[in-house]
Amino acid sequence: MSETASTETGFFAEEMTISVGPQHPSTHGVLRFVVKTDGEVISEAIPDVGYLHRSIEKIGEKVTYHGYVPYTDRADYLAAMFANQAFCLAAEKLAGTEVTRRGEFCRVIACELNRLASHLISVGTFGQDIGAMTPFVHALRERESINNLMEEICGARLTYNYIRIGGVGYDILPETLTRIAEFLDHFTPIVEEFNRLLSGNKIFIERLAGVAVVSKEDALSYNLVGPNLRGSGIKWDIRRDIPYSVYPELDFEVPVGTAQVGSLGDSYDRFWVRIREMQESVKILYQCLKMLPKGPAIAKVPKKFRPPAGECYARVEAPRGDMGFYVVSDGSEYPYRVRIRTGSYTAMSIIDKLSKGIMVADLIALIGSLDVDAPEIDR
Amino acid sequence: MGVVASYLNNIKDAVSSTFEGMSITFSHLMRKPMTIQYPDKIPVPIQDTLPHRYRGILEVDMDICTGCLACERDCPITCITIGIDMNKETKQRYFTHFDIDICKCMYCGLCSESCPTGAIRHSSEFEGASYNPAGLVRHFAPQAVNLYKPKKGGETEPKLITKVDIGQAYMDEFATPDGGAAEEK
Amino acid sequence: MKDGAFAGVPPQVVYAIGMVLTALVVLSVFVAPLAGVTSWLERRVWARMQSRVGPNRVGPQGILQWLADGIKNIMKEDIIPTAADQKLFPLAPYVVFMGFLCSFVVIPFGANLIVADLNIGIFYLLAVTSLVVVGILMAGWSSNNKWSLLGGMRSAAQIVSYEIPAGLSVLTIVFLAGTLSMQGIIKAQGWGPWDWFMFHNPFTFCTFFLFFTAALAEGNRTPFDIPEAESELVAGYVTEYSGMRFLFFFFAEWGNLYVIGAVATTLFMGGWQVPPVTDNPVLLAILQFVTFFLKAYFWVFVAMWIRATLPRVRVDQLMALCWKYMVPLSFICMLGTIGFMFMDENGRRIFGALTLGFAIATIINFFRRVGFQFRSAKPEFYWKPQI
C-alpha cells in the first residue's frame, strides 16, 4: 500500500490497490482492472486483458475459408453476424465474388436483428450495473424473441454461421418474414416503455450525467469507434461513410450524442445513442422486409475456395463499433493471416485516462457505457 | 431564484420518474411471465417446439452414408473421425468406426451441408449431458456397417426410399445458387 | 416456590428464565418464518415484475423456499478466513440480528398484543436499530478484506446520516401524539384514514414519505443498497461470509423490512385500530392483529416494489440527498406540523380532507397510468398470482 499524505488537513490517506475482476459481476466478460483508490476516488485504473484469449487469429491459418466462418462467430459472440459478414466481405473482395441481391438483403436483415440483440444486452447490463435489475430482464426477454427468430432463420441462437462467402447459408422463408414483422410491431412500444422505466429515471440520469466525459479530440485520438465515438458528437458510421452491402439504398439516420443531460460525450450520451440506434435498426428492418427481392440467396462459390494471392481489409459497423478483418491470402485454400480489429480493444485504452478522479461506482458506469466486451478484446 | 427552482425541479423529477417507473413495474405484475418451466411444467417436449432448422446434436443415418468423407474434411474442428476398411473376399467396403465428439462439435452445420445424401444431420436433440467424457463421443458404427451405394435412377428399396427422401428434404433447407428453399414454397 | 422443580431458586431468576424462553419461542415461531416468508414474497414479486416466475417448487407455490435455503445454508462448511479477526468475525451477524430483533419488543400488534409497552417506545426502537451499524462495521472490518471494509464504512456512514431525517419525522409525529409510547401514538389516531396522522395535514403527508425513504436507507434497501451492491463491490461487507452467517445478514434485512412497515403503520396509519364492529375481545384482538399485519405488509410490498424499479444511488449523491434535501425538508415539515397544531380543529380538518383527497387522486392517477402502460405495450394479460 502506498501512502499519500495530505498536507493541508494533516490527514494520512492510504491508497489501496484493488483488483476489480476477473471474477466480478459487472465487468462485461472476464476483465480485470488494477485500481488504485483511496477508498472512493480512483487515482488510476489499469486494464489487464487476456483472460479470454482463444487464438482465433491463429486458428485462421489452420482452417479453410469456409471452415473459418464459424470461428468468426466467436470473436464477439454477442454480435456474431457482423464478424461473419466482415470476414466474408474480405474473402469476397479477394476472390472477386459477387453477392446475390437477395443474399445482401438477407444479410442486412440478419445483421440488424443482431444489432438489436446486442444493444439490448448492452443497455440491459448497463442498467443492471447501475442497479436497476428490472430493465435488464425486460431487455433479455425481448432478446429471447430475437433469438427465436434467428433460430428459425438459421438454426442457432448465438453463434450463427449464417453469412457465408457469396451470400447467406439459409434462405429466409415467408413465414419467418411475417414473424419478424410481428416482432417489430411488438418491439417498438417496448423500447419506449424501456425509456420510461430506465432512461427517464432521475436517479439513472443523475448517476450518468457528466460522468466520464469523452471530448471529441480524445475520442478521435484514442481511436474510439461506434456508439462511443458518436456519443461524443462525431457523426461517423461505416454504413454511411464507407458503405458496403445495400446500406446506400436504405434510409436511416445516424444518431449522435447531443448532451441531453450533462455534457456532450458523457455516459448518458453513449447510452442514448444505443437506444436510438435500436430504433433506427427497426426502421431499417421494416424497409428491408418490403424491399427483399426474389432470387438465389447465395452465389456460386467453389467448395475449395482459393482466392488469388493478395490482401484485403473489410470493415463493417458492428454494434460495438468498427470491426475490421484484414485477410492475407497466398493463393492456397487456407488464409495466410487473419487479423481482427475490434472496437472494444481500443476502448480499453481510454479507461485509464477517464478514470482519474472518478469514483469506483463511476468506473463501473464507465465500463458499461463504453460497452466493452471481453471476447472482442481478447479474441 | 434559479437555485430554488432547480432544487424544486429535482424533487419534482425524482418523484414523477419514480411514479412512472413504479406504474410500469406494477403493470408487469399482471402480465404473463415468459418463463418456460422446463422440464416438467410444459405441455409438449421442447424438442417438438424447436424450429425445423435447429442445429442440435449431430446424428448420422448410417443406412444412406456413402463414406465419401466430405463431412470429415469439411469439419473445421475435426470432431468427426471415420474409418473405412475393405473386406478382402467380398470386396465390400465397410465402416470400422464413425465417431463424432459432440463436445468438440461447434454446431456450425458445415458437415451436413456437404453430405451428398443428407445422412449426417443436426437433430433437434440438445440434452447431451453425460457423467464422463467418454459418454460425449457418439459412436455411429459400433459394428461394421456397409457403405451405401446410391443407385442410378433413384432408390428402389422401400425402407431406404423414406430415408433418402428425409435426407434430401434436409438438404433442401440450405440456400443454393440456383434458387433456394424460399423459391419452392 | 417452596417445593417442586424450582425449589430454592429465587423467583426473579425463574421469571427471567421464563421470559428468555418465551422470547426464544416467539422468535423462532414468529420472527423466523416472518423473515423467511418475506424473502419468498420478495423473490416472487420481484420475479413477476420482471416477467419471470420466481420460486414455485418447494411447497405450495414455493412458500417453503426459505426453509430449503436455511437448511442448505446450515449444512454448508463454515469458512472463517484465517486472516480475519477470529472473535469479531463470527460475532458480527449476531450483533446485526440482535439490533433488529430487539425492536420487536415494542411493535404493537393489537391493543393488548405488545411485548412491553415502554413509555419510551419509539425512542427505544430508534436506539436499538442503530446496533445494526455496529454489526456491519464489525463485519466489514473483521473480514480483513479491502472490499468489505469499504462496504462496511459506507454502510455505517449511510445509516448514521439517515437517522436524522428518520428521527425528525418521528419527532413530528411525537409532537402530534404527545407521547413516545407506541400504544399512545396509536390511540391518538382513529381507525379511518381521515383520523390517521398521515393525512393530518399536508406536512405530515410529506413527513411520511421522508420517513419511509429514510427507513429504506437505514435498512440498506435499494435505491440505497450500496453496501450490498453486487455489481460494485462483489458483495460489500458480506463478501467473506458464507453459509448460515451470510444468511443471517439477509435474515436481518428482511425482518427489518417488516419492522419498517410496522413502524410506518404505527406512526402514520393508525396501527391496529379497527372500526368498532365487535365486542368479543378475542375476535377484536384477531381483527386488530390482522389489520396491523396487512397494513405493515403493504409497506413491505411497496419497499420490494421500489427495489425492483429504481437504480442505485451513488454514495456521494446519497449523502447529498440526505443532508441537502431530506434534513431541511424534515425540519420544514416539523415546523409546519407544529404550526398546524396551533390551528383550530375545523380549519385543520379542511386541510386534512384536502390531503386525503390529494392522496386518493394520486392513487386513481396511478391506476390510470398503469392502464396506459397496458394499452401501449399490449401484453398478454395474466393477473393470477399463482403459476
Summarize the structure.
The complex is a heterotrimer of chains A (379), B (185) and C (387). By secondary structure, chain B is of the alpha+beta class. Chain B has helices at 2-28, 46-49, 70-74, 110-114, 158-171, 181-184, and strands at residues 58-60, 80-86, 93-101, 120-122, 137-139, 145-146.
What does this structure look like?
- The complex is a heterotrimer of chains A (379), B (185) and C (387).
- With 379 residues, chain A is of the alpha+beta class.
- Chain A has 14 helices and 9 strands.
- Chain B has 185 residues and is of the alpha+beta class.
- In chain B, strands 2, 3, 5 and 6 form a 4-stranded antiparallel sheet that branches. In chain B, strands 1-4 form a two-stranded antiparallel ribbon.
- Chain B is elongated.
- The mean pLDDT of chain B is 86.
- Chain C has helices spanning 11-49, 65-74, 88-101, 121-129, 131-142, 146-177, 182-187, 202-218, 230-233, 243-268, 281-309, 315-342, 345-377.
- In chain C, helix 3 (88-101) packs parallel to helix 10 and helix 6 (146-177) runs parallel beside helix 12.
- The longest helix of chain C has 39 residues, at 11-49.
- Chain C is globular and about 65 Å long.
- The chains are: A alpha+beta (379), B alpha+beta (185), C mainly alpha (387).
- Chains in contact: A-B, A-C, B-C.
- The A-B interface holds A 63-64, 66-71, 102-103, 134, 141, 144, 148, 151-156, 159, 161, 166-174, 193, 196-198, 200-203, 294, 296-301, 303 and B 10, 13-14, 17-18, 20-21, 24-25, 28, 34, 50-51, 53-55, 74-76, 106-110, 113-114, 122, 173-183, 185.
